[in-house]
Design brief:
alpha/beta; D-Maltodextrin-Binding Protein, domain 2; 6-stranded mixed beta sheet; globular
Length: 342
């Protein structure tokens, strides 16, 4: 009887000891893009972070515009602790006072990151480098495209897709076409006029990047304005797609990480961001997603280096100022909805 009592007491004590440990497990909510991005984020960022910290990560999936709107709507009380979004939206939130400064002294990998990756006042940090460019089916498009103008060829009418302005490729393609048509950052009219007929001849104005995969899989499109990283992954899995960088220059994409104003888990959020910036996680994500790294210690495989913007392609990239873009996008979006999407 006494032995049984002692065993019961020991079990009860063990339960008491274990309870605080379980209660201390923190949850971090991370805003991320959907589709393959989320899958790669789980494998390269979330899993090693959870293993190292004992915390759990919940991903909230949306595009940059949706994430920015969510942070804005909660006005300093965001339900997310870390958010991935393109640098233009990150700059916009910084201008509105809705981001926390990233303390580099608490990021062990900060010195490994290329200097141009840091936003104004360290309000965000670029996590990877990609581009908006042309992707096509080499089985149906036997002469590789060389220019943005090729998308407007009548032979692709009803066989092309471009992004809606709510997504990165939408507004970046608008900028590229506007420049090609002689427009300026203050006059987007030439670009809107040029894109309107193309939008009408598009199968869909997609809002999520992975929609394009389905369009190519079903043979509904021959050519698209899309991402080289998504195309690289899709091609590796057997989808007949190839990447073409237009001679006028593709548009640089800089997916970034921000910490929304008001998060109560700043310490944990910084640890997660540090994990994202580590050479191990950067290489893991870059190789899985066919995307450029911002950590100087990462060396990519030849297969990935052929797809991501490097060398002469980078020298031709159109780098858009995120602060300027953040000021212009709201008006461009309204005009797009009135003049293009209808």
């Amino acid at each position: 009887m006494k032995i049984t009592t002692r065993i019961a007491k020991a079990a009860a004590l063990a339960a008491v000891v274990l309870l605080p440990s379980a209660a201390l497990a923190e949850e971090l909510v991370v805003g991320a893009f959907g589709g393959s991005f989320a899958d790669n984020a789980k494998a390269c960022y979330v899993e090693p972070f959870e293993k190292a910290t004992g915390a759990t990560v919940t991903l909230k999936l949306a595009n940059s515009s949706q994430h920015a709107a969510s942070v804005r709507a909660t006005a300093g009380q965001s339900d997310m602790d870390v958010v991935f979004m393109d640098d233009a939206f990150a700059a916009q939130l910084k201008n509105e006072g809705l981001t926390e400064k990233l303390d580099r002294s608490r990021l062990t990998h900060a010195d490994e990151i290329v200097s141009d990756a840091w936003g104004v006042d360290d309000s965000y940090v670029v996590a990877m480098l990609s581009a908006t460019t042309i992707v096509y089916n080499p089985q149906t498009v036997t002469t590789p495209p060389t220019s943005w103008k090729d998308l407007f060829d009548p032979k692709y009418a009803g066989r092309v897709t471009i992004g809606d302005i709510s997504g990165t490729t939408g507004w970046q393609f608008l900028m590229a076409v506007n420049k090609m048509e002689g427009g300026t950052i203050d006059d987007i009219t030439p670009g809107l006029k040029a894109i309107k007929p193309l939008a009408q001849n598009s199968v869909v104005l997609y809002t999520q990047a992975d929609q394009v995969i389905s369009l190519f899989e079903r043979g509904e499109v021959d050519i698209a304005v899309w991402y080289p990283d998504r195309a690289g992954v899709a091609a590796q899995k057997g989808l007949p797609v190839a990447v073409a960088y237009p001679q006028e220059g593709a548009v640089a994409i800089k997916p970034s990480v921000v910490m929304p104003k008001g998060t109560q888990k700043g310490d944990l959020a910084l640890k997660f961001i540090d994990q994202v910036l580590s050479a191990e996680s950067q290489k893991c994500f870059s190789e899985a997603a066919f995307i450029g790294s911002v950590n100087k210690n990462v060396k990519l495989s030849d297969e990935v280096s052929k797809v991501v913007p490097t060398g002469d392609v980078v020298s031709k990239l159109l780098f858009l100022d995120p602060s300027t873009m953040s000021q212009k996008l709201p008006d461009w979006t309204r005009r797009w909805q009135r003049e293009v999407a209808r």
